[in-house]
Design a protein that fits this description.
Elements (H helix, E strand, L loop, with lengths): L29 H9 L7 E5 L6 H12 L2 E4 L7 H7 L4 E4 L6 H13 L4 E5 L11 H9 L2 E3 L5 H14 L6 H10 L4 H18 L5 H11 L5
Parallel strand pairs: 1-4, 1-5, 2-3, 3-4
InterPro entries: Hda_lid (IPR055199), P-loop_NTPase (IPR027417)
Organism: Aliidongia dinghuensis
GO biological process, one term: DNA replication initiation
């Protein structure tokens, strides 16, 4: 018996919602949201926003960028040549993955921003005390900064994130599917993103609606111990 042809889904991409109203607030991230909303009344020139990969740091930083009309640079791209250009722009700045930035340029950027009264939002996977900073002047400045953490997601946040991820892909999902996944998956934003993408692809390939049996099949395939 010849198996029916399977449609190969084309990855056309999707646009995640990054506005303030789309950011999901629970106990795990309420403190971080409070600090973002408190700007420009920060007690120091910069704030460190730390949390595990996929915790929502980039989303929350994008909210602050819109609020503060801030620029953006990835920490690994920050070098001596970039610092004057960034300071001359005269704007607040987000430094993503600041813990991976070269120390000397980061120090110059901090000092120049403080002199110009331009705020910095530094995101990192780890609190600044655990960056292993070797440059004493930079270490002392980082030590003085407030650090706010986005904590690992709780069940209400994972539940809400799943709904948002499905909505970003324009998929209407029954509540029982979200409840099923929330009860069984690892509490991780990265896992949530991977699951939703795989469920979307599986539904498209099989011409099926997203149901609990389909979600169970995908979960067992990706994470056998959790399905």
């Amino acid at each position: 018996m010849i198996a029916p042809p399977v449609q190969l889904p084309l990855d056309l991409g999707h646009r995640p919602a990054l506005d303030r109203d789309a950011f999901l607030v629970t106990d795990s991230n309420a403190a971080a949201v409070g600090w973002i909303d408190r700007w420009p009344a920060w007690p120091m020139p910069a704030l460190v926003l730390e949390g595990p990969p996929g915790a929502g740091k980039t989303h929350l930083a994008s909210v602050w960028r819109a609020r503060a009309d801030a620029g953006l640079i990835d920490g690994p791209a920050l070098d001596a040549a970039a610092v004057p250009r960034l300071l001359e722009a005269g704007r607040p700045l987000v430094v993503e993955q600041a813990d991976r930035a070269a120390e000397q340029p980061l120090l110059h950027l901090y000092n120049g921003s403080a002199e110009r009264r331009l705020s910095l939002l530094l995101t990192a996977d780890r609190a600044s005390a655990r960056w292993g900073t070797a440059l004493p002047d930079l270490a002392s400045r980082l030590k003085a900064l407030p650090v706010v953490a986005i904590l690992p997601p709780d069940d209400p946040l994972i539940h809400a994130v799943l709904i948002k991820l499905f909505a970003d892909r324009q998929l209407m999902i029954a509540e029982d599917v979200v409840d099923f996944l929330t009860a069984r998956m690892e509490r991780s934003f990265e896992v949530a993103r991977r699951l939703v993408a795989a469920i979307d692809a599986a539904a498209l390939a099989a011409h099926r609606r997203v149901t609990v049996p389909l979600a169970r099949d995908v979960l067992r395939r990706l994470y056998p111990d959790e399905g």
